[in-house]
Here is the input.
Amino acid sequence: MDSVAYTAYSADGKPIPIRAGQAPQEFREQCWTNWANTDSTHDILRTYTPTLENCITVCAEYNKAYAANLEKNVGVGGGYCVAITIVKEHAGFCYLKNGTGTNDTMGSPGSYSSAVLINSVD
Here is the structure.
């Protein structure tokens, strides 16, 4: 199955850039992928979302707020969300990730879907 590109939109129907004037954030969807934590990557946040697309939107909104806080020199941590994984069989938990590393579906590839940010965060 080919991966699908997805543009994140805010509640007002507008595409979500990282910073004003930039291109909208686009993600490449990846079926049967679970970006597991590694020594160099970690989960930024875990939340419930009913769909992969909703999880992508949470990541995009997080990135927009993260960039705004950096510009204001507000203390922030976690890094940009550059990937997400949703666990479909466990209440739709959405994990925002600071990177990709190892794809570990723990023997149940149908339980996971992921996406990676195509745009540069710089």
